[in-house]
Write a structure and sequence with these properties.
HIT family, subunit A; 137 residues; 31% helix; alpha+beta; five-stranded antiparallel sheet; homodimer; 5 strands
């Protein structure tokens, strides 16, 4: 029986849905310290970018770039951090994070620096709606 | 006068050349804690992946995947970490790092965890030669 895609429960718990692109689910990390999107290609049995076929990897990275441009336009980030780590949650997911010279982890990476800080519900819903608007054209 | 590409002096100091691919220079980080390659597209004025045209980004990420497969084959890594951060050195460069469940930063990211540990010169030359061999086909 072929494997089927299912979002890892830890990714599901730590993020909220923004939009479904043709290949990937785009989710907002529930950490208000940084505007932080997560791109998850909806294909089974992937951990590394090298597990994708060339075709699927190009498609996935095109979607990552589209997400990066939307996040940059929405936030005016000084720098994007785009990364597949996957040391804790193995399912392939690509972080797209808006970084600012004034953010609490700058210039280090964000992972493990500060405890997650939840959004106010209205602020989270508003940011999701604005990002979705930028990604749905 | 158009800008010209020049490798950032900090990247140059912290890594050694492995091979020139059609678009990117591939370099080995001078940190023996982790087998760690750095891919630098030889184009001027780039910081983010979104600064590349679609065509150049696909080409760059194809080279990143090629580097990732070579590093994985050479080291038997448990996981690859592939990341563009650029918070300290702004010039676009993509880290391709072989991670092991036994490495000193696992499962966290490698940046800022441990001081760099230089390779023994013979070990560095040998690893560069083996990686170059895998990348020059």
């Amino acid at each position: 029986m072929p494997s089927t895609y299912r979002l890892d429960p830890r990714l599901e718990a730590d993020s909220v849905p923004v939009i479904e692109l043709p290949l990937s689910s785009v989710r907002l990390s529930r950490d208000a310290n940084y505007p932080w999107l997560i791109v998850v290609p909806r294909l089974p049995d992937l951990a590394d970018l090298t597990d994708l076929t060339d075709y699927d990897r190009r498609w996935a990275m095109d979607e990552v770039a589209r997400v990066g441009r939307a996040l940059q336009a929405e936030t005016g980030a000084h720098k994007l951090n785009i990364a597949n780590l996957g040391n804790m949650v193995r399912q392939l997911h690509i972080h797209v994070i808006a970084r600012f010279e004034t953010d609490p982890a700058w210039p280090g990476p964000v992972w493990g620096k500060l405890p997650s800080r939840p959004y106010e519900p209205a602020a989270e819903a508003d940011l999701v709606a604005r990002l979705r608007g930028r990604l749905q054209d």
